[in-house]
Specification:
Blueprint (H helix, E strand, L loop, with lengths): L1 H11 L7 H11 L3 H23 L1 H18 L9 H27 L2 H10 L4 H12 L4 H12 L4 H8 L3 H20 L6
Helix pairs in contact: 2-3, 3-4, 3-5, 4-5, 6-10, 8-9, 8-10, 9-10
Length: 196
Protein backbone atom coordinates (compact mmCIF):
# COMPACT_ATOMS: atom_id res chain seq x y z
CA UNK A 1 0.00 0.00 0.00
CA UNK A 2 2.89 2.37 0.78
CA UNK A 3 4.42 1.64 -2.62
CA UNK A 4 1.13 2.46 -4.38
CA UNK A 5 0.90 5.82 -2.55
CA UNK A 6 4.50 6.62 -3.46
CA UNK A 7 3.90 5.71 -7.13
CA UNK A 8 0.77 7.87 -7.19
CA UNK A 9 2.76 10.76 -5.77
CA UNK A 10 5.51 10.29 -8.38
CA UNK A 11 2.89 10.25 -11.15
CA UNK A 12 1.36 13.43 -9.77
CA UNK A 13 4.74 15.17 -9.86
CA UNK A 14 5.36 17.40 -12.79
CA UNK A 15 8.79 17.70 -14.42
CA UNK A 16 9.50 20.96 -12.58
CA UNK A 17 9.06 19.33 -9.14
CA UNK A 18 5.68 20.82 -8.28
CA UNK A 19 2.78 18.47 -7.55
CA UNK A 20 -0.70 18.83 -8.97
CA UNK A 21 -1.89 19.49 -5.42
CA UNK A 22 0.57 22.35 -5.10
CA UNK A 23 -0.61 23.80 -8.41
CA UNK A 24 -4.15 23.76 -7.04
CA UNK A 25 -2.94 25.48 -3.86
CA UNK A 26 -1.36 28.20 -6.00
CA UNK A 27 -4.61 28.71 -7.90
CA UNK A 28 -6.58 28.84 -4.65
CA UNK A 29 -4.10 31.34 -3.20
CA UNK A 30 -4.47 33.46 -6.33
CA UNK A 31 -8.21 33.60 -5.61
CA UNK A 32 -7.54 34.90 -2.10
CA UNK A 33 -7.62 31.65 -0.09
CA UNK A 34 -5.41 32.49 2.89
CA UNK A 35 -5.24 28.89 4.13
CA UNK A 36 -3.93 27.77 0.72
CA UNK A 37 -1.34 30.56 0.76
CA UNK A 38 -0.17 29.56 4.24
CA UNK A 39 0.13 25.93 3.15
CA UNK A 40 2.21 26.99 0.14
CA UNK A 41 4.56 28.91 2.40
CA UNK A 42 4.86 25.92 4.75
CA UNK A 43 5.64 23.67 1.76
CA UNK A 44 8.52 25.82 0.51
CA UNK A 45 9.81 27.23 3.81
CA UNK A 46 12.32 24.50 4.73
CA UNK A 47 14.16 24.23 1.41
CA UNK A 48 13.90 27.97 0.81
CA UNK A 49 15.35 28.77 4.24
CA UNK A 50 18.28 26.41 3.63
CA UNK A 51 18.90 28.14 0.30
CA UNK A 52 18.77 31.63 1.78
CA UNK A 53 20.98 30.67 4.75
CA UNK A 54 23.58 29.32 2.34
CA UNK A 55 23.31 32.39 0.14
CA UNK A 56 23.19 35.19 2.72
CA UNK A 57 24.01 33.69 6.11
CA UNK A 58 22.05 32.58 9.16
CA UNK A 59 21.78 36.04 10.72
CA UNK A 60 20.03 37.62 7.73
CA UNK A 61 17.91 34.68 6.61
CA UNK A 62 14.79 35.49 8.62
CA UNK A 63 14.69 39.11 7.43
CA UNK A 64 15.09 38.01 3.83
CA UNK A 65 12.45 35.28 4.17
CA UNK A 66 10.00 37.76 5.64
CA UNK A 67 10.57 40.08 2.70
CA UNK A 68 10.13 37.14 0.31
CA UNK A 69 6.88 36.06 1.97
CA UNK A 70 5.49 39.58 1.65
CA UNK A 71 6.45 39.78 -2.02
CA UNK A 72 4.90 36.40 -2.71
CA UNK A 73 1.69 37.46 -0.97
CA UNK A 74 1.49 40.69 -2.93
CA UNK A 75 2.30 39.17 -6.31
CA UNK A 76 0.97 35.59 -6.29
CA UNK A 77 -2.26 36.61 -8.01
CA UNK A 78 -0.21 37.92 -10.93
CA UNK A 79 1.65 34.64 -11.46
CA UNK A 80 0.48 33.51 -14.90
CA UNK A 81 1.59 29.89 -14.70
CA UNK A 82 0.96 28.26 -11.30
CA UNK A 83 3.14 25.30 -12.26
CA UNK A 84 6.27 27.50 -12.05
CA UNK A 85 5.53 28.61 -8.49
CA UNK A 86 8.66 27.13 -6.90
CA UNK A 87 11.01 28.56 -9.52
CA UNK A 88 9.27 31.91 -9.15
CA UNK A 89 9.69 31.80 -5.35
CA UNK A 90 13.39 30.97 -5.63
CA UNK A 91 13.90 33.82 -8.10
CA UNK A 92 12.26 36.23 -5.65
CA UNK A 93 14.40 34.84 -2.81
CA UNK A 94 17.59 35.13 -4.85
CA UNK A 95 16.91 38.73 -5.78
CA UNK A 96 15.98 39.63 -2.20
CA UNK A 97 19.12 37.97 -0.83
CA UNK A 98 21.39 39.72 -3.33
CA UNK A 99 19.76 43.07 -2.62
CA UNK A 100 20.14 42.48 1.12
CA UNK A 101 23.80 41.54 0.75
CA UNK A 102 24.46 44.61 -1.37
CA UNK A 103 22.78 46.90 1.18
CA UNK A 104 24.58 45.25 4.11
CA UNK A 105 27.97 45.73 2.46
CA UNK A 106 27.24 49.37 1.71
CA UNK A 107 26.03 50.12 5.27
CA UNK A 108 28.99 48.38 6.91
CA UNK A 109 31.32 50.49 4.81
CA UNK A 110 29.52 53.70 5.80
CA UNK A 111 29.22 52.98 9.48
CA UNK A 112 32.80 51.74 9.79
CA UNK A 113 34.37 54.70 8.00
CA UNK A 114 37.05 55.91 10.45
CA UNK A 115 37.90 58.92 8.27
CA UNK A 116 34.43 60.36 8.70
CA UNK A 117 34.55 60.04 12.49
CA UNK A 118 38.11 61.43 12.65
CA UNK A 119 37.12 64.41 10.51
CA UNK A 120 34.07 65.11 12.65
CA UNK A 121 36.10 64.75 15.85
CA UNK A 122 38.85 67.05 14.53
CA UNK A 123 36.33 69.68 13.54
CA UNK A 124 34.75 69.47 16.99
CA UNK A 125 37.50 68.56 19.49
CA UNK A 126 36.17 70.54 22.47
CA UNK A 127 34.27 67.71 24.17
CA UNK A 128 31.03 65.85 23.68
CA UNK A 129 28.73 68.89 23.97
CA UNK A 130 30.75 70.70 21.31
CA UNK A 131 30.74 67.53 19.25
CA UNK A 132 26.94 67.45 19.44
CA UNK A 133 26.77 71.12 18.51
CA UNK A 134 29.15 70.55 15.61
CA UNK A 135 27.20 67.52 14.50
CA UNK A 136 24.00 69.56 14.57
CA UNK A 137 25.68 72.26 12.46
CA UNK A 138 26.81 69.63 9.96
CA UNK A 139 23.37 68.07 9.85
CA UNK A 140 21.98 71.43 8.72
CA UNK A 141 23.66 70.79 5.34
CA UNK A 142 21.57 67.66 4.76
CA UNK A 143 18.06 67.41 3.34
CA UNK A 144 15.26 67.40 5.94
CA UNK A 145 14.39 63.77 5.19
CA UNK A 146 17.96 62.61 5.75
CA UNK A 147 18.36 64.96 8.71
CA UNK A 148 15.48 63.27 10.54
CA UNK A 149 17.05 59.85 10.08
CA UNK A 150 20.52 61.07 11.11
CA UNK A 151 19.21 62.71 14.26
CA UNK A 152 17.10 59.77 15.37
CA UNK A 153 19.82 57.24 14.59
CA UNK A 154 22.95 59.02 15.83
CA UNK A 155 21.71 61.58 18.34
CA UNK A 156 18.87 59.56 19.87
CA UNK A 157 20.74 56.23 19.40
CA UNK A 158 17.71 54.51 17.87
CA UNK A 159 18.02 51.51 15.58
CA UNK A 160 17.11 51.92 11.95
CA UNK A 161 13.98 49.84 12.54
CA UNK A 162 12.88 52.19 15.32
CA UNK A 163 13.76 55.22 13.22
CA UNK A 164 11.74 53.91 10.28
CA UNK A 165 8.75 53.19 12.53
CA UNK A 166 8.83 56.69 14.00
CA UNK A 167 9.03 58.33 10.57
CA UNK A 168 6.49 55.87 9.11
CA UNK A 169 8.81 54.88 6.26
CA UNK A 170 10.22 51.52 5.17
CA UNK A 171 13.51 50.47 6.77
CA UNK A 172 15.16 50.49 3.33
CA UNK A 173 14.18 54.12 2.88
CA UNK A 174 15.62 54.95 6.30
CA UNK A 175 18.87 53.25 5.33
CA UNK A 176 19.14 55.11 2.05
CA UNK A 177 18.40 58.45 3.73
CA UNK A 178 21.06 57.66 6.33
CA UNK A 179 23.57 56.82 3.60
CA UNK A 180 22.76 60.00 1.70
CA UNK A 181 23.08 62.10 4.87
CA UNK A 182 26.42 60.54 5.85
CA UNK A 183 27.76 60.99 2.32
CA UNK A 184 26.68 64.65 2.29
CA UNK A 185 28.33 65.31 5.65
CA UNK A 186 31.47 63.47 4.52
CA UNK A 187 31.70 65.65 1.40
CA UNK A 188 31.20 68.77 3.46
CA UNK A 189 33.75 67.84 6.14
CA UNK A 190 36.40 66.52 3.78
CA UNK A 191 35.84 69.39 1.38
CA UNK A 192 36.90 71.89 4.05
CA UNK A 193 33.69 73.91 3.92
CA UNK A 194 33.59 74.56 7.67
CA UNK A 195 31.75 77.61 8.93
CA UNK A 196 33.87 79.11 11.68
Amino acid sequence: MVIDERQAKVKAMRPDGITEGETLLVMRAQCGDLAAFEQLLRNVYGPLRNYVVTLAGESDADDILQEVALKIHRKVRHLREPSVFRAWVYRIATRAAFAHLKRAKRWRALENDPELYRSMAAANSNGSEDFDTGFLRLVDHVSPASRAVLLLHYQQHLSLDETAAILDIPVGTAKSRLAYGVATIRKFVLGGNHEE
